[in-house]
UniProtKB/TrEMBL annotation:
Lineage, opening ranks: Bacteria, Bacillati, Cyanobacteriota, Cyanophyceae, Pleurocapsales
Annotated pathway: Amino-acid biosynthesis; L-arginine biosynthesis; L-arginine from L-ornithine and carbamoyl phosphate: step 1/3
NCBIfam families for this protein: orni_carb_tr (TIGR00658), PRK00779.1 (NF001986)
EC number: 2.1.3.3
A cellular-component GO term for this protein: cytoplasm
Keywords, in A-Z order: Amino-acid biosynthesis, Arginine biosynthesis, Cytoplasm, Transferase
HAMAP family, alphabetized: OTCase (MF_01109)
Origin superkingdom: Bacteria
Domain Aspartate/ornithine carbamoyltransferase Asp/Orn-binding residues, every copy: 149-301
Protein name per UniProt: Ornithine carbamoyltransferase
Gene name tied to this protein: argF
Length: 306
């Protein structure tokens, strides 16, 4: 973990296989309270998008580390009035020890990181959601004992979640199948990168066939059909995405011991049925809790506490 000290996490592939494995091991130790870490550090949260789990889990994770949290709401700070990113980044760098940013453009996140010397964490952009993936991988490990050799099927929009799942699976030996409607597939550059990373170790598949994608899968994963900023197209997407709904009929094709994941918030009756998310297969609430443990491990590593 020492090689992570002072680094940024802007995308899933900023980590290598050894580093992800180490973070997951550290998260398990923190979750089980085998290890207790303390610091006197300050985390800044700069969120341009709404958040429940990311905001709360980052805050609690830092408090558990003994640090402090400052919520830098854009609506009450100068960034909301158009202060240049370069200026904001250099000022926050003088005040904070670590900064988590939730924003729209990946390029804005990268600009912050270029002008700040402290670790900068991607707390979600339109391109990726690497912190969510750490929690997802931790949850799959808890359920199956390992990642390698298992298959995760993601159904829905080829969005930031799909991108990070592809890269996270490739790095850990988890087979990843993305089933998305035509015109809503993940970024081809991300798919190519995931295949390069995976090599012969795991399978990376993108298809328009939800049934074929779910066949025999150990993990069935979904997300909202319209991400933040796409609300105007939400209703028009419903008939396009309906065949990709996680429901009992589709789940019958998966491994009998399969689990259901959803990064939340969920629109019951759209991307997932109430029956599915409340079923015995659902590990959605464990997955949400693991955001806190995975982010605690990540911050501990970036701050050099381990």
């Amino acid at each position: 973990m020492k090689q992570l000290k002072g680094r940024d996490l802007l995308g899933t592939a900023d980590l290598n296989t050894e580093e992800i494995t180490g973070l997951l091991d550290l998260a398990r130790q923190l979750k089980s309270q085998e290890l207790e870490l303390k610091c006197n550090k300050v985390l800044g949260l700069l969120f341009y998008k709404a958040s429940t789990r990311t905001r709360v889990s980052f805050s609690v994770a830092m408090y558990k580390l003994g640090g402090q949290v400052i919520d830098l709401n854009p609506s009450v700070t100068q960034v909301g009035r158009g202060e240049p990113i370069e200026d904001t980044a250099r000022v926050l760098d003088r005040y904070l020890d670590i900064l988590a940013i939730r924003t729209y453009a990946q390029a804005d996140l990268e600009t912050f990181a270029n002008y700040a010397q402290i670790p900068v964490i991607n707390a979600l952009t339109d391109l990726e959601h690497p912190c969510q993936i750490l929690a997802d991988l931790l949850t799959v490990q808890e359920c199956f004992g390992s990642l390698e050799g298992n298959t995760l099927t993601y159904l829905g929009d080829g969005n930031n979640m799909a991108h990070s799942l592809l890269l996270g699976g490739a790095l850990t030996g988890l087979n990843v199948r993305i089933a998305a409607p035509q015109g809503y597939e993940p970024d081809p550059a991300i798919v190519t990168r995931a295949k390069e990373i995976a090599g012969d170790r795991s399978e990376i598949v993108v298809t328009q066939d939800p049934q074929a994608a779910v066949e025999g899968a150990q993990v069935v994963y979904t997300d909202v059909w319209a991400s933040m900023g796409q609300e105007d197209s939400a209703n028009s997407r419903i008939p396009v995405f309906q065949p990709y709904q996680v429901n009992q009929k589709l789940l019958e094709l998966a491994d009998p011991q399969s689990i259901i994941l959803h990064c939340l918030p969920a629109h019951r009756g759209e991307e997932i049925t109430a029956e599915a998310i409340e079923s015995d297969r659902s590990r959605v609430w464990d997955q949400a809790e693991n955001r806190m443990h995975a982010q605690q491990a990540l911050m501990a590593a970036l701050l050099g506490l381990v």
